[in-house]
Amino acid sequence: MNDDVRNIVLGVVAAGISAALGWVARTYLWKRKLRRKQQFFGLPDNSESLLVVNRGAAGPEFAVMRFDVFALLELAALIKDCNAHAQILPHDTARQGFGERTEFCVGGPASNRRMAAHLDSLLPGVRVNVDSEPGPDRGAFQVGTERYRVDHGKEEYALLARLTADRSRNTRPVFLFCGQTSITNQATTRYLARNHERLTRKYGTGSFILLLKVINSQAYGPDVVELVEDVTRAAQTAPPAAAAPVPRNTHRAS
Fold first, then answer.
1. Which residues cross the membrane (predicted)?
2. How far apart are CA 34 and CA 23, in angstroms?
């Protein structure tokens, strides 16, 4: 074997080794990224999850608003990327605890009983105005002492939460997408899909509650979303109980 042939053989071997090392490195990084995503969403391979959907205010019994359908599609893509499966349940048939399966709950408490139950038990510092009568506070959020009103099509708010039950031995979280309108529900799921890696770096597999603002949805749809603030502490802190009135002493001394 002359020098030219030897150099060609060595070059081919070196290229093969480099390609193999590159493939191994890419596979390792891809698998690590997938595992981080699965841990954040609580969705290991072939696991089951719940998509709890609200119902539209009008229409057939199982009518879902158009933007809520889009929200479900956003979540279904995330679940599929994690090699997991989803079961869709209407909000008033999801009668079970959480922790055994990851849950994605979509819709405000006015149209989603499951969401109302989660807010009541897990987020005592959050109040949502569900009055059916028109008024400036209809649909408003109150988080702690701050109130956030709806300005339809211009400024609308939503809560994005990842929560786990401290009393549960399981690690499967519940994700809440609680918007003031159906388009804000979709905006919240899209925000999670776009930012889950950043949220993983910041929160790991812990709980968080974020207040989001959807800007000018009548022009931009669900795409322009701002993070207002992390309201985890305020949302999980129950408001102080009102002091009971002191009864008057109406007894007269004789």
1. 6-29
2. 16
